[in-house]
Protein: Fumarylacetoacetate hydrolase family protein
Organism: Actinomadura nitritigenes
Amino acid sequence: MRIANLAGRAVLLTESGALDVHEASGGALGPEPQALFDRWDQARPVLATLTGEALPYAEEDLRAPVPRPGQIFAIGVNYRDHADEADLQAASTDAPPVTFTKFAASLTGPAARVDLPEGWVDWEVELVVVIGRGGHRVDPAAAWDHVAGLTVGQDLSERLTQWAGPAPQQFSLGKSYPGFSPTGPAVVTLDEVPDPADLRIGCTLNGETMQDSRTAEMIFDVPALVARLSAITPLLPGDLIFTGTPAGIGATRTPPRFLAPGDELVSTIEHLGALRTTFS
């Protein structure tokens, strides 16, 4: 299933269009997208049975598929090539993953226009995990059972705010301006993904490839992240985990390159789809 938010209503995206969840379920499921993930164990069996007429839709009407998560986790330095380009020590699986949060007000959809704040705004394409079944101290072997699905994300970052000192740096603030968390176009359930542990991930800026890697290169894979995070704090249905970015960000280029008004950033993960973000 490909679960999306079409102008504020929960829909299933198909090859022929969008199927309204509330109408197709005869009212068994509500129209609000967040509610599907908040009650995932009850909603999923109903979603899997839905049929009906899928109607054409405009991509610009798609919004963040999980619009109001209770918690947003974000992982830093989770690809070795990104650690190398940023001259940072690669994460060690002997220690907890580098973790911060992005505030929910920064969420936006897959066809967003973002107003750039002053400063140096950078891109970071990321696989985003959507939690379906909450849990505390989840065993890694059971971690995928707690995942509702996967989606594409961008961890946009204003570097001057992020790097403001003294220590610690202001990661969460620098990554939470309005529109700094594009997600979508849909939450794709794992049965739609041949190998959810190994997906091609990348982004282009004005048609030029900036990042191109595979999620199999993550230091902490999805089961490890679910286990490590839930070992400390319970995960809740509808939570998001931004899982880190591969090499190719703007800050490490020579000279550095940052986003400017008029730019178009396209972020893609195979089997999940693409985000198209423009800047003003």
Summary: The chain has two domains: 2-61, 64-279. The chain is about 15% helix and 30% strand. The helical segments are 21-24, 33-38, 40-47, 80-85, 159-162, 171-174, 222-230. The CA atoms of residues 266 and 276 lie 5 Å apart.
